[in-house]
Amino acid sequence: MAMETVYEELDEVKVENEKLKASYAERILEKEEEILVAKRANEDLKHSLYDKEMIVKHLNGANDKLRVERDEKNQKWEQENGLMVLALDEANEKNVDLEKTINVLRAEIKGIKAHLSVSQN
Known about the structure:
Blueprint: H1 2-120
Keywords: Coiled coil
């Protein structure tokens, strides 16, 4: 009888062992599936990051190009403004000279009119 009990217990242990093996095999499959899902998500994130890095790189290049164009335009406008200021200064000087000439000529005309008025009398 003792041997029979040992065989029964051994059979029970074998059955329990098979249940545990099946349970662990199922858990391993679940974990492997979780790992695959995590790896796919990781790859997707890597691709997304790469795409975003390329977009940022492109935007930085475009921004640098725009900055250079802006600087060139600013320099051109500063040169044009400088030339316009010089032209305005020259025009103002000419106006001052012309006003002086006009005042001199008015004085001459006034003098001539006065002289003419005296000669006619």
